[in-house]
Amino acid sequence: MDGKFHIQDLNVYWGGNLLLKKVSLKIPSCQILGVIGPAGSGKTTFLRSLNRMNELEPGFKMEGRVLLDGEDIYGPGYDAVTLRKKVGMVFALPVALPMSIYENIVYGPRLTGIRNHDRLDELVEQSLQAAFMWNEVKDRLDLSGLRLSGGQQQRLCLARVLAMEPEVILLDEPCSGLDPISTAKIEQALTELKKRYTVVLVTNNTKQAARIADQTAFFLMGELIEIGPTDRIFTAPAQKQTDDYITGRFG
Amino acid sequence: MRIRPRYTQWLAVTILGGATVLTLAVLVFIIVFVLEKGLPVVNFRFLFTNAEDMGRAGGIFTTLIGTIVLPLLAIIVAAPLGISTAVYLTEYTVETRATKIIRFGTDCLAGIPSIIFGLFGFIFFVTTLGLGWSILSGGLTLAVMILPTIIRTTEEAVKAVPKSYRQVSFSLGATRWQTVKRVILPNALPGILTGIMLGVGRSIGETAAVIFTAGSSLRMPSSIFDSTRTMAVHFYILAREGISSENAYGTAATLIIAVLAINLTAYWMMGRFIAKRS
Known about the structure:
- The complex is a heterodimer of chains A (251) and B (278).
- Chain A has helices spanning 43-48, 80-86, 101-111, 117-130, 134-137, 150-162, 180-193, 206-212, 230-235, 240-246, and strands at residues 3-14, 17-28, 32-36, 60-68, 71-72, 87-90, 168-172, 198-202, 215-220, 223-229.
- Chain A is α/β, with parallel strands linked by helices and 251 residues long.
- Chain A has a single domain (3-246), classed as Rossmann fold.
- In chain A, the strands form 2 sheets. In chain A, strands 6-7-8-3-9-10 form a 6-stranded mixed β-sheet. A 4-stranded antiparallel β-sheet of chain A has the order 2-1-4-5, with no helix packed on it.
- The radius of gyration of chain A is 18 Å and the shape is globular.
- By secondary structure, chain B is mostly helical.
- Chain B folds into 2 domains: 5-41; 44-277, MetI-like fold, CATH 1.10.3720.10.
- Chain B has a two-stranded antiparallel sheet.
- In chain B, α7 (163-171) runs antiparallel to α8 (176-204).
- The chains are: A alpha/beta (251), B mainly alpha (278).
């Protein structure tokens, strides 16, 4: 399998605390990597080091290398803005920007300088289709994004990321506040999307990882305990801690 | 002895409500008093003819112009400077000792009596820079005076924009400036406008800083290098020197109506803006 991301000996510090210890792994392209682990295990920190969102917080420090298609994204001359256009992110809490559904989705494309209205319309329809919400909102694209329900807002966030036509999609517990039906729609969308995108899905819900992830990585206390094909992780984990976590003995 | 919650509740409503009624009563009394004494004088002629005989007769047209031009100049100078400073402090710098000192400094400046600004304006703009008693000197002095207010209100408005909006914007590949322009400023705009309105209000009602810097000429100014008199100064001079109490109250009534109209317009604009986005 060819790796989209190669992470080598990644240490992340925040305010003097070591949040990630010597994490090394490969993220295969066009698959879903599920990242599981209890709260405070470094899952989110790991995710945010893939699009350099960590460095927006003061007190952040990192060591090691994160290669995207063989290029070090923390290397000198690698521009964080360019990176984030390739590596999109959906946050735990759905955040619609206070503008219309349409404007939310074209936010990213407009930043890159796309002005052509037909092109923008096309992007809006494509992205909403892919996020399984085109039929719900196609007649009210002028509606403020804030008026949508939580589940719809989260799919709007997904559509907004898709409209940037990224290569990688990072999702940070995207379904933590959603009802089962919205969750199912997001999962359905992700299963479709992995054909074209590399997906990294951080989730607190181990069953979600079992359902849709191709590979699963288990983090504990800032360390990567184990990574492997999802089937194997959930049936025959190599580490005792992994077994304890997925069978619900802690976490 | 413990008072029963029912009575404390009654007491609280009475005291809080009483304070509100008292505040409103004072305000209404002042406005009604001034309007009652002033409105009979105010008519089209009063507003649009020049003062005669030091203001004993005639209207207030030139002071009306002065009242529009001075605050306008102050806002044109202070708003871009203040908003830029506030955005820079909140978005482009991390909170350090230096930013805290700057913040403390602006808070102190906002509390300085306006006559000090007047004196500064007189020494710096009128004398040192040689601008003389002029609209320019007065406008710049007012700008310096309202700058701290604009900076602080803008800062608060910018800080009140949810952090998650910034995160989303950055994660979509926006630069800091793109985030400021497309997300932060539009969302902070109602707060920023409030700051600007406070500045307008302060400069419209200002007398001390204006007399020292713009002078009190009743002639129609032909450029920003001419001296002028604002309505507030006109009222002060008419009342203090006992020239005409009728015309003084007429000026005051016009001033109150003008401030009311400006505020209503601003609220109406803000309301429309917010309704459009939510």
